[in-house]
Amino acid sequence: MNDPILKLPHIEQYLTACVQCGYCISVCEAHGQTPWESVTPRGKIYYMNQINVKGPLDKLLKREVGLNPYFVDAMYKCTGCGNCEVVCHARIPLVELWETLRTWLVKNKVGPLSAHKGMADKVAENRNPYGGDQKKRGAWWPAEVPKAGVPDVIFYAGCTGSFRQQAVPRNGVLVLNRAGISMNVLGEDEWCCTSPLLRTGVNKYSLDHVEHMVEKADGMGAKDMVVSCSGCYKTISSDFGLYYAKAGQNVYHFTQYVDKLLKEKKLKITREFNHTVTYHDPCHLGRHMGVYEEPRNIIKAIKGVELVEMPKNRVNSRCCGAGGGYKSQFNNFAVRIAAERIREAEATGADILITSCPFCVTNLTQGAEAIGSKIKVMDLSEVLLEVTAPEEPAPGTEAPAAAKADA
Q: For the whole model, what pTM was predicted?
């Protein structure tokens, strides 16, 4: 498409701020897989500048300056991780810029890409990007945990937790139950938070979904909401208010809530976990939301654990490759990025790689499988399920139930 009257969004201040220094190139995981200048943050901004200053000379020199397929492809070859923003000397809010530009591409009918359109269509039809049956959305809930009518916590599993990585929310609920937290879920009323769509430029469903969930959650009467997916946590915390209203609950990521419970001595760690571990910061939880220490506080509170950090951690952490719609459209590249992170984890000597996001668990596991790595990828909720299990009675002592029966 070569449109001579393209109207850019209000981004000129960012385009002119970029000094083309190139610091963003070495930290761009997408560029590592597709080493073209057009894929780099600097290349994207340079091209947008060309569109912005397009004039008669371009036509005279037969230079195509418009929304051609190569530029559109480059705009979507980005995980949205935010590493470029961290190193940007001009302090351009690049994560926001990429999402603004993708929304603009959709508005100009050259986006989203095929996989992203498929997700959007499924959200429109099924209220989730996997096409899952919403009536079975809460099927992961552990039968042994009661659902409270007016709970302390609404547990938000997210679409990936509900339909792909059900162990993540299930483990989370079991752990919180051991701390005496009363919980419930929205069930089929838990619609997609629309994070996968917002990251790929589709925002037309967000108002409907956000309004629905805020009203349903507020009607449950819970004080807190605990979210097990890092992407959902960012969206509920940061994006809901942009489209309708903020959630009426105190919104916590699972790791934040568990850290709080440990500090309040409401959750007891009963068992050792004798492993050398390293921790991978999910982009949406770490760089985007600043949650770095809570997961590490939890790991450090577990007896028997030796935590060793990868060279790239916290704000400089590498991306696992699964975000920003990158994995859905460019799966092979995404798995290769994950494999690089796995190699970095292996180099620490750790036998377990812990993270706090179902997307990261999925892609890092596939990355490990791709290179035959023996390192085990675990969500922190899985580790906590092991170390908070009820204490076994000492040898030779009677169980409480038996003692009560004899009495």
A: 0.93
Instruction: Write out the DSSP string of 5-22.
Output: T----S-HHHHHH-----
Count other Cβ atoms within 10 Å, centred on residue 5.
Answer: 4
What is the Cα Rg of the chain in Å?
Answer: 23
Residue with structure tokens 């609920």?
A: 173
Per-residue pLDDT reduced to its tens digit, 359-380:
999 999 999 999 999 999 999 9
Query: Is residue 269 left, alpha or beta, with left meaning phi > 0 and alpha meaning psi from -120 to 50?
Result: beta
What one-character DSSP code corresponds to residue 190? -
8 A C-beta contact, residue 310 and residue 278: yes
CB 180 within 8 A of CB 145: no
Q: How many CB atoms are located within 10 Å of the residue 330 CB?
A: 22
Q: What is the pLDDT of residues 139-183, one digit of tens each?
A: 999 999 999 999 999 999 999 999 999 999 999 999 999 999 999
Residue 243 neighbours by CB under 8 Å, 6+ apart? 203, 206, 207, 210
How far is Cα 139 from Cα 127, in angstroms, rounded to an integer?
A: 16
Do 153 and 261 meet the contact criterion of CB atoms below 8 Å apart?
A: no
Token pair 């109207």 in the structure block, residue: 7
Strand order through the sheet with 276-279: 306-307, 276-279, 352-355, 376-379
Contact 186, 260 (CB under 8 A): no
Is residue 281 within 8 A of residue 314, CB to CB? The reply is yes
Per-residue pLDDT of 309-362, as tens digits, reads 999 999 999 999 999 999 999 999 999 999 999 999 999 999 999 999 999 999
d(CA 374, CA 364): 12
Contact 248, 237 (CB under 8 A): no
Which helix (H) or strand (E) segment holds residue 72: the answer is helix 69-76
Q: Which amino acid is at 294?
A: E
